[in-house]
Automatic annotation (TrEMBL):
One term under GO cellular component: side of membrane
Organism: Canna indica (Indian-shot)
Name of the protein described by the UniProt record: glucan endo-1,3-beta-D-glucosidase
Recorded topology in the membrane: Lipid-anchor; GPI-anchor
Organism domain of life: Eukaryota
Keyword terms: Cell membrane, Disulfide bond, Glycoprotein, Glycosidase, GPI-anchor, Hydrolase, Lipoprotein, Membrane, Plant defense, Signal
Lineage summary: Eukaryota, Viridiplantae, Streptophyta, Embryophyta, Tracheophyta
Length: 484
């Protein structure tokens, strides 16, 4: 009987823990995985739990991540990449199969709590030149049928995360309309989403407005009031987020869906890689946003009605993202790649500050730097190769490592490459121009990283052997062995 009670108590404990987690807050995070230094999914899920983050948005339906989220009580959005929209629109069987293998499979007792499926990711982005435009609705229709067949339609909602470039206004928010070539398609899609009880999902980035336009008033991007408010009849806008949001409300209103609930799929501020992308700006923006949302003030066109959900972009930095838009692309995380908080932040979820990831499987504390005796002009090619593979975005104008000097640049590039190669000692050779050090070469705000091991233990077998050989080699090199 005692053991039975123990079991009951344990179950109860988990139930309570689960319900504590799902404090009903609108705030969630995007969890992207374009990273060469990935924390193991269970460590990431612990990070979410420690920070009481109860909602997470994925860009795909990665099985290892969903497995780690099972039983966590965290609500999940899985994503379908744009490239699959065509297949699901033309084949009901393909849609059925995807739902069954990537969704139903995890929706078991004690499984993953999948609430949304994002159908495409910003499929109407202007730069895609319409290639996905006509594929969204047929995919929605088939996937909705698949959900119905799987008995999940009452529980899981389909959404289409749109970039804010789907709508525009020549002047003030109340003049908002969808882009003319999208009006018809948006009307059909919004009508479909509305009939299934789904919100409209949009990604809003005041940072990009500021980055792309030199005359964008800086204070209008934040939430501390603006000396350049936008006056729209009786309504006055003091921040770009509200202005953008209400432009969408106006656009929805013009196609007959002015009451459609709106969710924010992505919103955030990068901490590195551009002059306006720094830690203090990122903190100010995100804290301002969270406070604004939690105040339940809403916007002038939707007073007292905050967005249904808000997914911050993003949880951790991703060093393999394309830098076509800019070097800041790899620095959107509220945590760095290794789950360490970049700045103090109160998400309004119960903790006053962010908590760092625990049990991070770091590689050993060692770095690759430029041999002090080298001639910097001899390494241009090595640096190019290193930075093509690894991340060097902090070295450029506006980045946290932009002022560490010519030799510092080389060391930084060498180290990024060495860590990318999991500290394989051959990757620090660079024709004899690189050397390994046990002293952290970080300078001021410029942080020289130590990578993360693929194995969850820092002494995984092959890695341990490599470390041992490495140590012997260095000891020999330093002639310490001779004196022992
Ligand atoms: C950080 O960005 C903010 C906002 O754009 C800017 O005002 C500030 O000067 C930047 N800080 C630094 C140290 O570059
Ligand atoms: C370091 O590299 C960056 C990026 O190429 C460059 O902007 C900066 O001027 C370099 N610093 C020196 C001292 O060469
Ligand atoms: C992202 C992901 O894990 N997708 C899986 C979905 O299901 C298909 C099979 O239909 C797998 O091949 C994918 O890997």
């Amino acid at each position: 009987m005692a053991s039975f009670n123990l079991v009951k108590a344990t179950v109860l404990c988990f139930l309570i823990q689960g319900s504590l987690l799902s404090v009903d807050s609108a705030i969630g995070v995007n969890w992207g995985t374009r990273s060469s230094h990935k924390l193991p999914p269970p460590v990431m899920v612990d990070l979410l739990k420690e920070n009481r983050i109860g909602k997470v948005k994925l860009f795909e339906a990665e099985a290892d991540i969903l497995r780690a989220l099972m039983g966590s009580g965290i609500e999940v959005m899985v994503g379908i990449p744009n490239e699959l929209l065509g297949v699901f629109g033309s084949s009901a069987a393909a849609a059925d199969q995807w739902i069954s293998q990537n969704v139903s499979r995890f929706m078991v007792k004690g499984g993953a709590d999948i609430r949304y499926i994002a159908v495409g990711n910003e499929p109407f982005l202007t730069s895609y030149q319409g290639q996905f435009q006509s594929l969204v609705l047929p995919a929605l229709v088939n996937l909705q049928q698949s959900l119905t067949k799987a008995n999940l339609a009452g529980f899981i909602k389909l959404v289409v995360p749109c970039n804010a470039d789907a709508y525009q206004s020549a002047s003030v928010p109340s003049q908002g309309t969808f882009r003319p070539e999208l009006t018809q398609i948006m009307t059909q899609i919004v009508s479909f989403l509305n009939s299934n009880g789904s919100p409209f999902m949009v990604n809003i980035y005041p940072f990009l407005s500021l980055y792309q336009s030199s005359d964008f008033p800086q204070d209008y991007a934040f939430f501390e009031g603006s000396s350049h408010p936008v006056v729209d009849g009786q309504n006055v806008y003091y921040n770009a987020f509200d202005g953008n949001f209400d432009t969408l409300v106006a656009a929805l209103n013009k196609i007959g869906y002015g009451q459609m609930p709106i969710a924010i799929g992505e919103v955030g501020w990068p901490s590195d890689g551009a002059p306006n992308a720094n830690v203090s700006a990122a903190r100010a923006f995100i804290q301002g946003l969270v406070n604004h949302v939690l105040s339940n003030k809403g916007t002038p066109l939707r007073p007292g009605v905050p967005p249904v959900d808000i997914y911050l972009f993003s949880l951790v930095d991703e060093d393999q993202k394309s830098i076509l838009p800019g070097n800041f692309e790899r620095h959107w995380g509220i945590f760095s790649f290794d789950g360490q908080a970049k700045y103090p932040l109160n998400l309004g979820l119960g903790n006053d500050l962010l908590k760092n990831a625990k049990d991070v499987p770091y590689l050993p504390s060692r770095w690759c730097i430029a041999n002090p005796s080298l001639d910097p002009s001899a390494v241009t090619n090595h640096v190019k190769i290193a930075c093509n593979a690894a991340d060097c975005t902090t070295l450029f104008y506006g980045g946290s490592c932009n002022t560490i000097g010519a030799k510092g640049n080389i060391s930084y590039a060498f180290n990024s490459y060495y860590q990318l190669q999991k500290q394989d000692f051959r990757s620090c050779d660079f024709d004899g121009l690189g050397m390994i050090t046990f002293l952290d070469p970080s300078i001021g705000d410029c942080h020289f990283l130590v990578g993360i091991s693929d194995n969850s233990s820092p002494f995984g077998s092959s890695n341990f052997c490599a470390s041992w050989i490495m140590t012997l080699w260095i000891l020999t090199y330093l002639k310490i062995l001779n004196s022992l």
